[in-house]
Prior knowledge:
By secondary structure, the protein is α/β, with parallel strands linked by helices.
Amino acid sequence: MAFEGLSEKLQSVFKKLKGKGVLSENDIDEAMREVKLALLEADVNFKIVKQFVADVREKSVGKDVLESLTPAQQVIKIVQDELVGLMGGTGSKLTYSPRGFTVLMMVGLQGTGKTTSCGKLAHYLKNEGKKPMMAACDVYRPAAIDQLEIVGESVGVPVFSMKDCADPVEIAEKAAKEAELKGHDVLIVDTAGRLQIDAALMDELVRMKKAVKPHEILLVVDAMTGQDAVNAAEGFNGALGIDGIIMTKLDGDTRGGAALSVKSVTRRPVKFIGVGEKFDALEPFHPERMASRILGMGDILSLIEKAQENFDEAKAEELEQKMRKNEFTLEEFLEQMGQIKKMGGLGKIIDMLPGMGARAAGTDIENSEKEFRHMEAIIQSMTKEERRNPSVLNASRRKRISAGSGQPVHKINNLIKRYEEARKMMRQFMTGSRHSKNKLLRSLT
């Protein structure tokens, strides 16, 4: 997960500060040296790190901080505020054309996930109540048009293409007319990329910009390329003028420095982050929430939003009725496991909880996710009767399930034990309230 190393180091610095109680300027200086190293190791731009540390130190050595009852907490608050400011202050939303038809032009280098991001953005806009269309304007990369059409089919969004046309500007113009004529309110234009910024690429994008007059130009960059992503953003913004950034692969093993640097370098906000391969794995970027995650304070708001997105009220009411009748079976248990997977898996949930995170919580996320898959295999190897009435699971049945799932008998025994504990807890949780959704959200907070 992005920022994991940075988060761990910063939390270690602050733990030392909290242990001191009273702070001196020397304590602050020592802490700032460690913060500086942590940021540099996270691949944050050197000039930005230098300014960031200087700003934090200046605010931290004031009399009001050093002589306060909780100086360490105040220093942490200063760092948090500066991190939020570094990433843009507040979340930056997409803006739409006042005349009702908006063109979003997607640009970027090859390999950044631009075409996939078009699909993710289209999926996001559909959920926001928009009616998007995509335009296939990459006429150079082999199978690029076919790829976008497959993406469009996957997310249920039409794709305009002209496979016999070699002029991407002409395609974009005709796509805009077609989209507006058919009642679409957003056109997402997928443009060609290059291995590096060159004059031919920029000339083509500038001509396309003049032709379709996009309401926003969104640059797609790969977070895993670190400062190369920042340099690309600076280059595209200088030559074309961008309105926002979509940062992909922020869920990967990346140091996260690009997300912390790009706003300061380009003066353009990160609007969305890609946090997975699925088409629903595109999230609006919230600097204040990301800063909280980095500092180990969690991200409860995003967790609640994820719960709401994946919450099926009808199923929750059905589950509550079954709990009241003492009918919570292994089938429901499997369904609840599926709900956690829909929310991004155990790792992402833990990462959003205050004071948690894979390492901070001492939780082996990889093994936990593997355990979930094993439990799923065991339940799926049972008959319908066994799932609904686990009391029939005698020794011979458990051996058969073991052979079918590839899991040892002791894991089946452990699953039944966990199920019984969950059954008891869920019954207590459900009893006495008809509003399952509110209880779910309260349990998260």
